[in-house]
Design a protein that fits this description.
6 helices
Length: 176
């Protein structure tokens, strides 16, 4: 199996993981948003959950059906006589990019969830006088939002700088 085939396989597997993670998170998101909306009968929580699910689903499907585009950019096809060290570095860059893509895709799903939750929280705070002294954002929610932002940043850094991260790992291991 050459590097391109292995890269495409890794991307397809990562796409399946993104799709499965998204589909398993949808019921929890719907229930959380419906409970947060209260007894009002409207479609807003359902629409929010569907919109939040579309982005990672589309990314996952693109990874499953179009892995060659990303693999061609990550693996150099012009060099056929790579040494084993070069091959390992190339595959490590692909693996780090796949992990970065997964982090970024799942952070998009989480970001839409946090925006919807914050919107519902502020709507409840405005309509109820009982919560007049409550903070604008609960501490756990703030921590979750920061974690989502850090996950998105880590995903982008891994996605765009996978070769540099790979070189840092090689230096840290003392191989170069």
């Amino acid at each position: 199996m050459d590097h391109h085939a292995l890269s495409r396989l890794l991307l397809r597997i990562a796409g399946v993981v993104v799709i499965v993670a998204t589909l398993t998170a949808v019921p929890k998101s719907i229930v959380t948003l419906v409970v947060a909306a209260g007894q009002e009968a409207n479609a807003s929580p359902l629409i929010t959950a569907i919109i939040a699910s579309l982005v990672p689903l589309m990314i996952g499907m693109a990874m499953v059906w179009l892995p060659g585009t990303v693999a061609n950019r990550l693996v150099d096809s012009t060099s056929t006589g790579n040494s084993q060290v070069d091959a390992a570095a190339s595959l490590q860059a692909v693996a780090l990019s796949v992990i970065g893509f997964y982090f970024f895709a799942s952070s998009l799903f989480d970001a839409v969830f946090w925006v919807a939750r914050l919107k519902l929280y502020s709507a409840v705070m405005e309509t109820s006088e009982a919560f007049a002294g409550a903070p604008a954002v609960m501490p756990d929610d703030f921590a979750g939002m920061v974690a989502t932002g850090v996950q998105a940043l880590a995903g982008v850094l891994l996605l765009l700088g996978s070769k540099g991260v790979g070189r840092l790992l090689v230096k840290a291991r003392g191989h170069a």
